[in-house]
């Protein structure tokens, strides 16, 4: 299957959907007959102005139904829309969200039972996040308990200090060789750290704050489900391509949750932890020439 077929795997045009952050490249465009509402950080006019000089087709930018100013999505759309959507699509979105668990729980409230959250996620092995530590379940729980709406000073420092490029490219194919280099200096990272403001009243500054490989994201969803923090379960995980991989999550009712003994659960977790180690070993970094 091609990329669009993968991301749309469980979706139909007749279903009621949401797409978050489609920007200039919607996956389920209204112009193609999809019954979808869009959520973005700016209006259509603001997006057209933002991307006008970026060499992209701004005519593909569609009307934005909901302008997201970092509040919980279920609050933005209102309780009348809870449990009314069949699916939600978010491509290259979750890695930017300071409170990832809060985001997932908001989407759960908006989806009907059995609804699908279709995600496109950067693979940290093949992009500028390659040197950053994987995001753990502990990281996600801690951020949610703190109700983060702004990136932490820690995230700002890591984003600047450890961003890398391969042959000057910020993303690359998994087969691509070539020299790798840091994008920024340590002094720039420290300057950004000292100048950042975590307070909720501060202006939002955008960074990647979550970093995954396929097995680590699977472990996150499994562990969050096991401790009762999400009703999402993985419906399908598709092979990655280039700098991204694809996951479809399904909102599962409590009665449908698989019952595992503690031993079975830990065996599954151990298997995923071992897969994570194997996947990370595939991120071969050639010596700098």
Descriptive report:
- The structure is a single chain.
- Helix content is 31%, strand content 19%.
- It is of the alpha/beta class and 289 residues long.
- It has one domain: Rossmann fold.
- Helix 6 runs antiparallel to helix 7 (186-195) and helix 8 packs antiparallel against helix 9 (262-281).
- The longest helix has 20 residues, at 262-281.
- The radius of gyration is 19 Å and the shape is globular.
- The model has no long low-confidence stretch (mean pLDDT 94).
Quick summary of this structure?
This protein is of the alpha/beta class. Helices cover 31% and strands 19% of the residues.
Fraction of residues in H or I helices: 25-40%
Shape category: globular
Secondary-structure-based class equals: alpha/beta
Low-confidence stretches: none
CATH class: Alpha Beta
Number of domains: 1
| Distance between the amino and carboxyl termini | 37 Å
Order of helices and strands: HEEHEHEHEHHEEHHEEH
| CATH topology annotation | Rossmann fold
Q: What is the level-2 CATH architecture name? A: 3-Layer(aba) Sandwich
List the helices and strands and how they pair.
Layout: H1 3-7, E1 17-20, E2 36-40, H2 44-51, E3 66-67, H3 73-77, E4 85-91, H4 100-110, E5 111-122, H5 137-145, H6 153-161, E6 164-166, E7 180-182, H7 186-195, H8 214-226, E8 232-241, E9 244-251, H9 262-281
Parallel strand pairs: 1-2, 1-4, 2-3, 4-5
Antiparallel strand pairs: 5-9, 6-7, 8-9
Helix pairs in contact: 6-7, 8-9
Question: Main traits of this protein?
Answer:
alpha/beta, single chain, seven-stranded mixed sheet, Rossmann fold, globular, 31% helix, two-stranded antiparallel sheet, 9 helices, 9 strands, 289 residues
């Amino acid at each position: 299957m091609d990329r669009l077929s993968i991301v749309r795997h469980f979706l139909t045009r007749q279903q009621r959907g949401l797409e978050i952050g489609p920007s200039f490249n919607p996956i389920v465009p209204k112009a193609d007959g999809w019954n979808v509402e869009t959520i973005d950080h700016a209006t259509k006019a603001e997006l057209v102005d933002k991307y006008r000089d970026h060499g992209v087709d701004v005519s593909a930018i569609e009307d934005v139904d909901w302008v997201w100013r970092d509040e919980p999505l279920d609050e933005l759309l209102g309780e009348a829309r809870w449990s009314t959507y069949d699916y939600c699509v978010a491509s290259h979105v979750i890695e930017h969200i300071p409170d990832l668990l809060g985001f997932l729980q908001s989407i759960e409230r908006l989806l009907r039972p059995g609804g699908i959250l279709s995600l496109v996620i950067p693979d940290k092995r093949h992009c500028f996040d390659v040197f950053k530590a994987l995001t753990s379940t502990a990281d996600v729980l801690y951020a949610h308990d703190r109700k983060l709406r702004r990136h932490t000073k820690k995230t700002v420092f890591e984003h600047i200090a450890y961003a890398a490029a391969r042959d000057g490219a910020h993303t690359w194919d998994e087969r691509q060789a070539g020299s790798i280099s840091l994008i920024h200096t340590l002094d720039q990272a420290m300057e950004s750290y000292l100048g950042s403001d975590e307070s909720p009243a501060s202006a939002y500054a955008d960074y990647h704050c979550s970093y995954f490989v396929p097995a680590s994201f699977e472990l996150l969803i499994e562990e969050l489900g096991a401790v009762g923090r999400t009703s999402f379960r993985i419906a399908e995980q598709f092979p990655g391509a280039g700098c991204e991989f694809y996951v479809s999550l399904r909102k599962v009712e409590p009665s449908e949750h698989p019952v595992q003994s503690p031993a079975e659960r830990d065996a599954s977790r151990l298997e995923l932890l071992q897969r994570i180690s194997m996947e990370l070993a595939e991120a071969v970094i050639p010596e700098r020439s």
